[in-house]
Amino acid sequence: GAVGIGIPAFRIAGGLLLFLTAVEMLFEKRQPRREKTMHEAEALPDPTVFPLATPLIAGPGALATMILLVGQHPGDLGGQATVYLTMVAVLAICWLFFRLGGTIERLLGPTGINVVTRLLGMLLAALAVQFVLQGLRDFGFGG
User: Fold this and answer.
1) Could you state, in order of their start, the residue ranges of all structural domains in the chain?
2) What's the first-to-final CA gap in the chain, in angstroms?
3) Within 13 A of 126's CA, how many CA atoms are on the CB side?
4) What is the SS3 string spanning the chain?
5) Whole-number Å distance between alpha carbons of 16 and 30
């Protein structure tokens, strides 16, 4: 890497960050933190300057994931274009979910939201473990 950080290190670090997020999703630790963040935002004079969603959309986990996925296609413009187009599609889906958030919340209800959160948390945990294992393999551990 440009600053002496290789892709394997990003795989491990990104995997660990994603795994921490997954654990929070699986064990409902995000909700109290999110509520605290919202209360802090309400205390600010102008709440428009406090980005509530940005840490999840473009936070360390998302950035590490993009670096890892682009790094899997060095010199392959088609592969990198696929990653970037997927990123744009994910942003469009996020925008859609933000627009329809209230409706989705009413349709799913608290139980449905908990089930979906846990299912996505499990999927994220598996992806995170895969990143860490690949990073360890790249460093020569585990064959």
Assistant:
1) 7-138
2) 23
3) 5
4) CCCCCCHHHHHHHHHHHHHHHHHHHHCCCHHHHHHHHHHHHHHCCCHHHCCCCHHHHCCHHHHHHHHHHHHCCCCCHHHHHHHHHHHHHHHHHHHHHHHCHHHHHHHHHHHHHHHHHHHHHHHHHHHHHHHHHHHHHHCCCCC
5) 17
Q: What's the burial of 24, exposed, middle or buried (CB within 10 Å: 0-12/13-18/19+)?
A: middle
CA distances from 120 to 4, 55, 117, 125 (A): 33, 17, 5, 8
CB 9 within 8 A of CB 64: no
Q: What is the pLDDT of residues 41-79, one digit of tens each?
A: 556 555 444 455 566 677 777 787 888 888 888 888 998
| Tokens linked to 43 | 């205390």
**123 has pLDDT over 90:** yes
| pLDDT for the residue numbered 44 | 54
CB 83 within 8 A of CB 66: yes
| pLDDT recorded at residue 103 | 94
